[in-house]
From TrEMBL, chain B:
<dbReference type="Pfam" id="PF00005">
    <property type="entry name" value="ABC_tran"/>
</dbReference>
<dbReference type="GO" id="GO:0005524">
    <property type="term" value="F:ATP binding"/>
</dbReference>
<keyword id="KW-0813">Transport</keyword>
<dbReference type="InterPro" id="IPR003593">
    <property type="entry name" value="AAA+_ATPase"/>
</dbReference>
<dbReference type="Pfam" id="PF08402">
    <property type="entry name" value="TOBE_2"/>
</dbReference>
<dbReference type="InterPro" id="IPR027417">
    <property type="entry name" value="P-loop_NTPase"/>
</dbReference>
<comment type="similarity">
    <text>Belongs to the ABC transporter superfamily.</text>
</comment>
<protein>
    <submittedName>
        <fullName>ABC transporter ATP-binding protein</fullName>
    </submittedName>
</protein>
<dbReference type="GO" id="GO:0140359">
    <property type="term" value="F:ABC-type transporter activity"/>
</dbReference>
<dbReference type="InterPro" id="IPR050093">
    <property type="entry name" value="ABC_SmlMolc_Importer"/>
</dbReference>
<feature type="domain" description="ABC transporter">
    <location>
        <begin position="6"/>
        <end position="236"/>
    </location>
</feature>
<dbReference type="InterPro" id="IPR013611">
    <property type="entry name" value="Transp-assoc_OB_typ2"/>
</dbReference>
<keyword id="KW-0067">ATP-binding</keyword>
<keyword id="KW-0547">Nucleotide-binding</keyword>
<dbReference type="InterPro" id="IPR008995">
    <property type="entry name" value="Mo/tungstate-bd_C_term_dom"/>
</dbReference>
<dbReference type="GO" id="GO:0043190">
    <property type="term" value="C:ATP-binding cassette (ABC) transporter complex"/>
</dbReference>
<dbReference type="InterPro" id="IPR003439">
    <property type="entry name" value="ABC_transporter-like_ATP-bd"/>
</dbReference>
Length: 304, 363
């Protein structure tokens, strides 16, 4: 470093160093991204490709044999049980999505705007705990509550009301699926609402907006991408869930995931089960793409 | 004041652990441009928020247009505000942002659109109506925020440091724009800022606050030339403050003993011998001379040049007096060229006795 330089020289720390970048600054992101790419290739892409490949294989005397036949696809896609299961699963997942959003929006609003910061943090951690606890355990807990001699019926009996068949229908299935999805939906919406600029809300009030209008005119438009994310996440979780339908309805009517397992169990039909699986994945990709589209396209009501 | 449009009486706002506004009284005439200034946390923004109804006062009253505002919620006040962050709605187009208050008033879509376009045109934003907010420059967003606040034709506009996010060049242009709007509309502007240049350029009257209290209200030149107390004098920045005790009275002059020496000051208020007193000499009232040229006649202090600062053709010279106080002197470049002022040079600072301003309050 020259001692009496008129301009301070660039410190070495800010110079591109040959030892780190090996000549090219573009090498750094590649080096950091490589492990992730490798992980994805080995544990996601490879099984996926294998799953698709299997759909063209054959099963002969309970043994899987490599082949290239379209028989599995035609048999599943044109079968009535598949159509029924698909329709049922779509309807169940859509219902869960609507219910989860209807419940999550007011809940998230209360947590984000009506609670003090300390109580809000507590509520967020109480929501995060179930996400990381066993879903199976929570489903069992609901069986204790909703069963024929469960807590709910005991309470009903105590106030002189007749027993209800709570378990084994659409109601208990939704209870199960909401147990899975509601905490996630609420968390996504709480984080989005906490991030909304408070001056936007004050500005709306200042410009003549009543409380209720602030929610519909400013808050909801501000968090639209998060609402779409919460909706797609809920749909994806409910659509692919196996434990909920199995324990809350006794697999009747079957959802696609139930159908998938049943297909495997009946005569080791791995190729046909794979067809169900690939179809489910295709639907999820479609839903996710539609969600992305809805989240990014600006639906603008023009004043004209 | 006979016709006060805005009247604050004993207005008070306490938060848990913080007394933001401590019982202030202020009258603002209809059509007046008032700037509220003060350091951060002095209560100026809280006062504005109280006017808009975004905060509930814990004491005192606010009347706007003769109507007590107690219990009137923010959305019914018609006291539109322009925020420092502008608070434009990113999910609405430019025209829909501007028409937002009309939508709240349930005006028809056609009428909303017509009036939004009219205001956009008026603020030089013709043709921008259907753009996204994100597509606009800082100055254009500023105009959208103004149009949105003014579209309901309010009788008062509140501005909370609206220009501080703009660069210097744009800030000056927007000042001109605000001045023009204020003249054309003839409505009351209440403008909160920490920037002296904005307040001086725009306001009819300046309110200076500190620690939740009003320290002085007056025209810009009064606040600058005739500060009421040491706080205002120092807040204005270009005043040199002397603190001392009155040691004598003769005719209309008082002699003040300060650590730097005895000075004769015009006694503009009753002042008893032995009473504490403070006076200021404005930075542009001081003349500079090199120490080797001998002491000047009249009041003066000796000091050493610390440094110089250019602002256009004006130079601010920082001088440390022998008493260790930092003084500022403001001169035109041509006035001091011959003095060859470099840091470390010994100088005399002199002023005419009539230019010393005895502060009405010593604290």
């Amino acid at each position: 470093m020259p001692p009496a330089s008129p301009k301070p020289p660039i410190p070495d720390a800010f110079r591109p160093s040959a030892s780190i970048y090996s000549g090219s600054p573009a090498a750094m992101p590649v080096a950091l991204g490589l492990p992730v790419l490798a992980w994805q290739a080995v544990f996601f892409l490879a099984p996926l490709v294998f799953l698709v490949v299997i759909t063209f294989w054959q099963v002969r005397s309970f043994r899987l044999e490599p082949a290239f036949v379209l028989d599995n696809w035609t048999r599943i896609l044109w079968s009535t049980p598949f159509h029924r299961a698909l329709g049922h699963t779509l309807q169940v997942a859509a219902t869960t999505t609507v219910l989860a959003l209807l419940l999550a929006l007011p809940l998230a609003y209360t947590i984000a705007f009506r609670l003090s910061v300390r109580v809000r943090d507590l509520a967020v951690s109480l929501l995060a705990v179930p996400v990381f606890s066993s879903y199976m355990l929570r489903i069992y807990a609901w069986q204790v509550v909703l069963g024929a001699d469960g807590i709910a019926n005991a309470v009903l009996g105590a106030v002189g009301l007749p027993k209800l068949q709570l378990l084994g229908g659409a109601f208990s299935l939704q209870v199960g699926l909401l147990t899975l999805t509601l905490p996630v939906a609420v968390l996504i919406l709480v984080f989005a609402m906490v991030g909304v600029d408070r001056t936007l809300i004050e500005a709306a009030e200042n410009l003549g907006c009543r409380r209720a209008q602030v929610i519909t005119r400013v808050l909801i438009p501000s968090i639209r991408p998060a609402i779409v994310l919460a909706g797609t996440t809920t749909f994806l979780l409910a659509f692919g869930d196996y434990v909920g339908p199995l324990f809350m309805t006794g697999s009747k009517p079957p959802t696609l995931s139930i159908l998938l397992v049943d297909t495997v169990k009946s005569g080791s039909q791995w190729p046909r089960a794979s067809v169900v699986g690939v179809s489910m994945l295709a639907i999820l990709v479609l839903v996710f793409a539609l969600g992305r589209l809805a989240g990014s396209v600006r639906i603008r009501r023009r004043a004209s | 004041m006979t016709s006060s449009f805005v009247a604050l009486k004993g207005l008070d706002k306490r938060y848990p652990g913080h007394h933001a506004v401590r019982g202030i009284d202020l009258d603002i005439a209809a059509g007046e441009f008032v700037a509220i200034m003060g350091p951060s946390g002095c209560g100026k923004s809280t006062t504005l928020r109280l006017l808009a109804g975004l905060e509930e006062p814990t004491g005192g009253s606010i009347a706007i247009g003769g109507r007590d505002q107690a219990g009137i919620p923010a959305h019914l006040r018609d006291t539109p505000m322009v925020w420092q962050s502008l608070a434009l709605f990113p999910f609405l187009s430019v025209a829909d942002n501007v028409a937002f208050p009309l939508r709240m008033k349930r005006l028809g879509a056609k009428e909303r659109r017509r009036r939004a376009l009219e205001w956009l045109d008026r603020l030089g934003l013709a043709g921008m109506a259907d753009r996204d907010i994100a597509q606009l420059s800082g100055g254009q967003r500023q105009r959208v925020a103004l149009a949105r606040a003014l579209i309901t034709q309010p009788s008062i506009l509140l501005l909370d440091e609206p220009l501080s996010a703009l660069d210097a060049h744009l800030r000056v242009r927007m000042q001109t724009e605000l001045s023009r709007l204020h003249r054309q509309l003839g409505i009351t502007f209440v403008y909160v800022t920490h920037a002296q240049s904005e307040a001086f350029a725009l306001a009819d009257r300046i309110v200076i606050m500190s620690e939740g209290r009003i320290r002085q209200v007056g025209r810009p030149q009064d606040v600058y030339r005739a500060p009421a107390n040491p706080f205002v004098a120092e807040f204005m920045g270009m005043n040199n403050l002397f603190r001392g005790v009155c040691r004598g009275r003769a005719d209309d002059m008082a002699t003040i003993e300060t650590p730097a020496g005895h000075y004769a000051v015009p006694a503009r208020r009753p002042l008893a011998v032995g009473e504490p007193a403070a006076f200021v000499v404005a930075a542009d009232r001081i003349t500079l001379a090199r120490a080797e040229d001998g002491p000047p006649s009249g009041p003066a202090v000796r000091g050493t040049v610390l440094g110089l600062e250019f602002v256009g053709s004006t130079q601010t010279i920082f001088v440390e007096t022998e008493g260790g106080q930092e003084f500022r002197v403001q001169k035109q470049q041509h006035e001091i060229e011959a003095l060859d002022l470099v840091p470390g040079r010994a100088v005399h600072l002199a002023w005419e006795p009539r230019h010393a301003w005895l502060l009405p309050e010593t604290e």
